[in-house]
Amino acid sequence: MDLSQFPNFKRFSGKTILAIDYGTKVTGTATFCPGRDPFPLLCASIIYQSDQQIISEIKKITDDEGIEVLVLGLPFFTDGKESEMTQRVRDFGTELQKSLANLEFHFQDETLTSFEAEDRMKNSPEFNFKVDMKKIDMVAASIILEDFIKS
User: How far is CA 103 from each of CA 31, 41, 131, rounded to the nearest angstrom?
Assistant: First the structure.
């Protein structure tokens, strides 16, 4: 899929973006630098211990990868309504922004990204046409990043 046709591709060209699929079990991440990378790249799966631990791990990634923009997936019900998790992710986003105030920050609707991640894995030789639960959150983060570029 060619993402270069979308306005956010040009807007963020040359900037390294980290997308985050926050979870209370596993948080997945993916990176993308429009104009350098051909597509979003899987980055890391972080096993959840606490929000502060997740923020600490994300800080390390931002330093190691030269991240300039953070995109945090925000979950909604399919009818667009908010859930308890939506508010939890908003609260996490507030703490993340405080901890990494020097980075540009955006929320991105992540509705159904986990289902799409499963579907992509089932249809991809990269994953042997199987859902790899160790990578699903990273794949969801890469979809969040694609959606952000397309928005």
Answer: 14, 20, 33
Q: Which of 30, 67, 35 is nearest to 46 (CA)?
A: 30
State the first-to-last Cα distance of the chain, in angstroms, to the nearest integer. Answer: 15
Structure tokens at 107: 């929320």
For residue range 32-82, list pLDDT tens digits in order: 999 999 999 999 999 999 999 999 999 999 999 999 999 999 999 999 999
Domain boundaries, the chain: 7-150
The pLDDT tens digits of the residues spanning 106-124 come to 999 999 998 999 999 999 9
Structure tokens given for 105: 């920050």
3-state class (DSSP) for residue 29 = strand
Rounded Cα gap, residues 23 and 20, in angstroms: 9
Which CATH number applies to 7-150?
3.30.420.140
User: Looking up tokens 């190691």, which residue turns up?
Assistant: 64
Q: Work out the burial of residue 127: count CB atoms within 10 Å of its CB; fewer than 13 is exposed, 13-18 middle, 19 or more buried.
A: middle
